[in-house]
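Retro notes
What went well: the complex prediction finally ran end to end.
Inputs used:
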Amino acid sequence: MPSLDLTMSSIDLTRTICDIDSVSDREGPLADLIEESVSAVPHLRVTRHGDTIVARTELGREQRVVIAGHIDTVPINGNVPTRFETIDGVEYLWGRGTVDMKAGVAVQLKLAAELAEPVADITWIWYDHEEVSEAKNGLNRLSQTSPELLAGDFAILGEPTRSQIEGGCNGNLRAEIRTRGLRAHSARSWVGDNAIHKAAPILDRLAAYEARSVEVDGLVYREGLNAVGITGGIAGNVIPDECMVHVNYRFAPSRSAEEAVAHIHEVFDGFEIEIVDLAAGARPGLDAPIAQHFVAAVGGTPMPKYGWTDVARFSRLGIPAINYGPGDPVKAHADDERVPVEQITDCERGLRAWLTGADS
Amino acid sequence: MPSLDLTMSSIDLTRTICDIDSVSDREGPLADLIEESVSAVPHLRVTRHGDTIVARTELGREQRVVIAGHIDTVPINGNVPTRFETIDGVEYLWGRGTVDMKAGVAVQLKLAAELAEPVADITWIWYDHEEVSEAKNGLNRLSQTSPELLAGDFAILGEPTRSQIEGGCNGNLRAEIRTRGLRAHSARSWVGDNAIHKAAPILDRLAAYEARSVEVDGLVYREGLNAVGITGGIAGNVIPDECMVHVNYRFAPSRSAEEAVAHIHEVFDGFEIEIVDLAAGARPGLDAPIAQHFVAAVGGTPMPKYGWTDVARFSRLGIPAINYGPGDPVKAHADDERVPVEQITDCERGLRAWLTGADS
């Protein structure tokens, strides 16, 4: 496999790395290429951790920013190799990974090689296994084995945001709310105790629930509490003895994971509750001066990120973090995944302006 | 295979026919034996319809009663051959079919051979495929191909009732009640429309529903309206666009199938309703003089039958019908299926008293 030429345009670089298969568990060859190419850059100190590559400047700057992107993709579905296509006058690069998130990685790689004298020290991280389980996630692994490598004053994750700033993320909780009853033949239903009927107040509370909108560091996060599943029943002639409502709570980053759990216990008071998934959100941290410089350099109006992303891992370490990358998140994982090429150059321009101090 | 000796005791006859495998679809050998044995009885005219045997007296009596029992069983599960066992001083015959319903068939076979001069003409029917689908049911088939063979003034089905009279049966309806919404990512739930939340009023109405108790021909039928299943949900991060509540309505035999459907539409007004199963109940008809004689001969207090049984087929033909046979219905299909032998002789005594006019 040829080496990566980090001086080519970020659009060509995106295309090159998209055409290298790096579906989760197969990141090795792309990680090799990245390691090889950034190791050749004199101002970067490079270390490898599995298939995660970390490249740092060590210029003794007062502040350090962490800029990260994952190099794996979801499975290819006939959408590689990439191609350019124009729709309604907009030029796109089409194919797996163009949105989620190799265009972001390409911009980062190009700037990592180019910026020998950034205004802040930079820790670049390209990591594996973002699209699969928490346990395999390269950034998660790094935060446990070498948390010092994630240290910084501000972090940027290159997840697709249409090259607009999306700050922090909502927290995410899933719970199973259960009712119990007593089985009986439905011809003699009065002998039993219908667990599905007992779930009526659970659905009533969900239907009546008014989700909050909460301002955090200047961004307004909209919450949501929803049933995402319901199951109950044994057979057409049996009174059911159990019903389970699967609930998903998305909560603003001003609320801790513990507070979210307490809220669920309050809403579903009197019912059996099992928390099956819990991840705190992340504050956008856009009130810090370094973040203000970033906002000024990139332009546009920062928005909240609703979905949970790896920025929460930085938040957990006390580092404000935002999402910023090319591509519409709606096209992530889609068979017609495609990124407007203009967003790639926009992202490159925004990051460069900030990191070279061109905004000040 | 040896012939059946219809002069042996009804208990021994029960044991003999239980030890002959006649799981649904394998009724042939037992049907052969029954046909052979009743054909040898001078006062019976015997016809065969598949594996259903019909034996009639033709004495020119003013009234005709139909007495029927199915000869198939659910699958054997290590509970054949039969054996006698005594529990807490009660003697049982243990094994597949002893309750459902070869003890009843044995009593019928014995009396068919014995009673040359009953007070009413009798049509004895031993039929196949009761334990499987409606389409295969021998009595259903006969009602369509030779309805004249089911004609009569009163009918008795030998289903297990602990040798007490259980009149008629409730009707049975199942319906799927649906709500529809709009899918969305649960991180942006306000974009969607949650179909599970919309099902709250369905469960509210079910929980608040007060089932009727309805007197029909002197018996009180208790109704029931229950959710027997509920499903909804696509994934833990998706707002669901559909929810289905599976409802079972057991209705008194005074209500027609059409009236039952109308009631369901009334209760779930405003929701999408699909009727997936519908069978009218059967009136007990215990107010007719012939039935009163039967009650007097058998003794005890007639009770309503809650579950749906083949008596409804007679009801559909305008013939009052009751259930009367040895064994506790709770033990039907059970691995420890067993009949108290005293109930076999009780049933024999009750039927004989009535059919010989010993009660008058």
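What we learned: Chain B has ten helices and 19 strands.
What to try next: split runs per interface for comparison.
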